[in-house]
Design a protein that fits this description.
By secondary structure, the protein is an all-alpha fold. The chain is built from 3 helices and no strands. The longest helix is centred in the C-terminal third of the chain and has 24 residues.
């Protein structure tokens, strides 16, 4: 669970902005959007397979530099 503490004269808008950035950084918004609807197991496997393929391509590109 994320916790945000006020920094001195920080406004509520600034605290909310920091909280949103932390949520984005932790990947919570993606997870919430993904869980907002039912995903069939075959679709989940397909998504994970695509993610793994992208990661291997990125590693290969980084290794060739």
């Amino acid at each position: 669970m994320l916790k945000i503490r006020s920094r001195g004269n920080e406004t509520v808008e600034q605290m909310l902005k920091r909280f949103k950035k932390l949520c984005e950084k932790e990947g919570l918004t993606k997870e919430i959007k993904r869980n907002s609807y039912y995903e069939k197991p075959s679709e989940r496997k397909r998504r994970q397979l695509r993610k793994a393929q992208r990661q291997t391509i990125r590693k290969q590109r980084a290794g060739s530099r």
